[in-house]
Amino acid sequence: MSFFTRIESGDDPEFMGLLEQFIEFLTGKIDRPKLFVIRVDNWFDHKWLGFAGKTHRRHEEFPNIVVSAARWYPRDEFTLPPFSPNRILDQKEFDLDADKITQATSSTKIHRSKKTPSSQNILRNLRELCGRGLFIWFSSQSSPNGRASMMVYQTKDDNVGGWYVSFLKKDRWQVNQVKNIKRDIVADAFSGFYEK
Questions:
Q1: How confident is the model at residue 159 (pLDDT cuts 50, 70, 90)?
Q2: Measured between alpha carbons, how far is residue 112 from residues 70, 86, 103, 153 in Å?
Q3: Which of 34, 43, 92, 103 could cross-link with 133 by S-S, CB 3.0 to 4.6 Å?
């Protein structure tokens, strides 16, 4: 039974079960009043972790030339990942209480529905969006792709942390790549569900 997500066309049911299990594991381990679960169109890689967007400036000697640079932030300054609005397929917000988890009645859409310049996104610090929250992004199309990804950010007052994990499906789902998290932690969360 799906509570945090729902199975859509192109989703692998086994991966979606794994995702539900992992979200449940996280909500039991982390004290946060808010949970945001965001479905991203298609697979995304580890380079999205900490990515804030691109900055543009005019070249000092040649003002007709615009120089672009990608910006990644250190762990304590995470901003909202600048996914294009058409890649955000669904956003859900949950209230985490000690006794129960409920879907928020008035959900905060953390991703904008219209494309905005990176210069505006770079200013959207996650701590300002939600001082104490858990943000989970996951990829759609896991069935035809045979791979899936998930990225998690956590905010707690002045602290922000984040990590990434990707999966490949062979006979069963396997952890492919991890960034900023130990494989053992992922293994504990998915114990008995996938192959290491």
A1: confident
A2: 20, 10, 20, 18
A3: 34
